[in-house]
Write a structure and sequence with these properties.
By secondary structure, this protein is an alpha/beta fold. Helix content is 48%, strand content 11%. It folds into two domains: 184 residues, Rossmann fold (3-Layer(aba) Sandwich), CATH 3.40.50.1970; 189 residues, Up-down Bundle (Dehydroquinate synthase-like, alpha domain), CATH 1.20.1090.
């Protein structure tokens, strides 16, 4: 397949970040970085992406464009302030003037965090919130290697406090990437368990942004387009078609990006608020946690009216569709399958009610409402 085989959504023209989309697009990274003024480039990635050869291919393109390139490949899942500090040290050693996040959401978040600290100093907790960077950030490019977080379309870095394990959402318009490279070939070799967690996270983004109290006309358009692409390709991708079928890979990757862009234009809701404590308290992979909670959140939010009507007029059918996707991905459906004991639910409810995304849920959420969601997920 070639880039000309793909229909590029009109809503992405003249977007920020600029989107370069199509098979083999990674090969353009050097020319694009040079065009944006990069001379000394730091590529932030993780060991799996490096082992797959993607980082080496990016470095080859950057070197061919005459750019001095260094690689930081020590990113871990749910990166903490310590990971950001290590990436920042590597950036300083290289005298970096351009940053590339290559990988899943963790790599891109670490790259954004590095950009904050390298240019503005301090620690990530100093940027917890919105718009706290006083000085300009370096130009940055993001290249996702999973169809999941859509972080390449967002100005927020989610960084974990190493003591409390709480995720700190650090956002600033200056942190948004200049360019996002969406190369469907990069997700062909993603391990099945990673693809499943990432894919259901992208689905959750489409659903929660569609119901968010912060939704706009733009975010609605993005949510609908993302939902259509993701649900049309998800089961095929989970069955292994993404390895061989370029169209499936393209729809999954672009759907995840559109859902990520919808977050930037809108916000999320209670499924993500419930998921974060499951990750911080029990180490549950984010996508697994948010996917498990999502059908219960949909049904809870639609008891009085359906805030997701633009995706599906029948909210119960929407929840059933999501459950079908969870089954297709072989993802757990009950909290006990994740080793979460019933006696922990009240504490989880307190933590979930404190999450930022809870504020944008279509129904008001307090500790009792969060507990009801957890109990539903425990009893299923």
């Amino acid at each position: 397949m070639t880039p000309n085989d793909f229909e590029f959504p009109e809503i992405l023209y003249n977007s920020r970040p600029k989107v370069v989309f199509g098979p083999g697009a990674l090969g353009a990274v050097g020319a694009l970085a040079r065009e944006l003024g990069g001379c000394r480039v730091l590529v932030v990635t993780d060991p799996g992406v490096a082992a797959a050869g993607h980082a080496a291919r990016a470095a080859e393109s950057l070197s061919a464009a005459g750019l001095a390139t260094a690689l930081f490949s020590a990113v871990e899942e749910n990166p903490s302030e310590d990971h950001v500090a290590a990436a920042t040290a590597a950036a300083r050693d290289h005298q970096t003037d351009f940053i590339i996040g290559l990988g899943g959401g963790s790599a891109m978040d670490t790259a954004k965090g590095c950009n904050f600290i390298l240019t503005n100093g301090g620690r990530m907790r100093d940027y917890w919130g919105v718009g706290k960077a006083e000085r300009p950030l370096l130009p940055m490019m993001s290249i996702p290697t999973t169809a999941g977080t859509g972080s390449e379309a967002q100005s927020f870095a989610l960084i974990r406090d190493p003591q409390t394990h709480q995720k700190m959402a650090c956002g600033d318009p200056k942190a948004l990437s200049r360019v996002a490279i969406l190369d469907p070939d990069l997700i062909a070799t993603v391990p099945a368990r990673v693809a499943a967690a990432a894919g259901i996270d992208a689905v959750a983004h489409a659903v929660e942004t569609a119901g968010s109290t912060r939704r706009t006309e733009l975010s609605r358009h993005l949510s609908r387009e993302a939902w259509t692409r993701l649900t049309g390709s998800f089961a095929k991708a989970m069955a292994g078609a993404a390895t061989a079928d370029g169209r499936v890979r393209a729809d999954m990757l672009l759907g995840a990006h559109l859902a990520g862009a919808a977050i930037e234009a809108s916000m999320l809701g209670a499924a993500h608020a419930c998921a974060n404590p499951l990750t911080s308290e029990f180490g549950v992979t984010h996508g697994v946690a948010v996917g498990l909670m999502l059908p219960h959140v949909v049904r809870f939010n639609a008891r009085e009216r359906n805030p997701y009507a633009e995706l599906e007029p029948d909210a119960n059918r929407l929840a059933q569709t999501i459950e079908g996707l969870l089954d297709a991905a072989r993802l757990p459906r009950r909290l006990e399958d994740l080793g979460v004991p019933t006696e922990s639910l009240r504490k989880l409810s307190v933590l979930a009610a404190q999450q930022w995304t809870a504020k944008f849920n279509p129904r008001p959420m307090g500790e009792s409402e969060m507990l009801a969601l957890y109990l539903a997920a425990a009893s299923r």
